[in-house]
Design a protein that fits this description.
The chain is mainly alpha-helical. It contains three helices and no strands. The chain has a domain at 20-63.
Length: 63
């Protein structure tokens, strides 16, 4: 199974930049659309070099 997972992971690397760009676009859309609602806040993407490769914009939660 490890070889199959490795193959899938390698395939994902081909589209990683596109997926990160799409997630950032979604984040910006929600941020700009909902910024006037005082009870909604967003976590900013970390600017630390270590975290730049570990995108944290994959999950938006509304409570």
């Amino acid at each position: 199974m490890s070889n199959v997972l490795a193959g899938i992971g390698r395939g994902q690397m081909n589209v990683l930049k596109d997926r990160v760009a799409a997630r950032r676009k979604n984040y910006d859309f929600y941020l700009n659309s909902l910024r006037e609602i005082k009870d909604i806040s967003f976590l900013a993407e970390p600017k630390d070099f270590f975290f730049q490769s570990m995108v944290k914009l994959y999950l938006n939660i509304f409570l």
